[in-house]
Amino acid sequence: MRTVAVVGAGAWGTALSCHAARLGHAVRLWAFEAEVSEAVNSRHENAVFLPGVRLPETVRAFRDVGEAVRGADLAVLAAPSQHLRELSLQAAAHLPPRSVVVVAAKGIEESSLELLSTVLGETLPDVGPLRLAFLSGPSFASEVARGLPTNVVAASADPAAARTVQQLLHAPTFRVYASDDVVGVQVGGALKNVIAVAAGACDGLGLGTNARAAIITRGLAEMTRLGAALGAQPLTFLGLSGVGDLVLTCTGELSRNRALGLSVAKGADPKKYLAERRSVAEGFSTAAAARALALKTGVEMPITEQVYQVLHHGLPLPKALKALMHRDFKEEFRGIRTG
Question: What is the CATH number of the domain that holds 242?
Answer without folding.
Answer: 1.10.1040.10
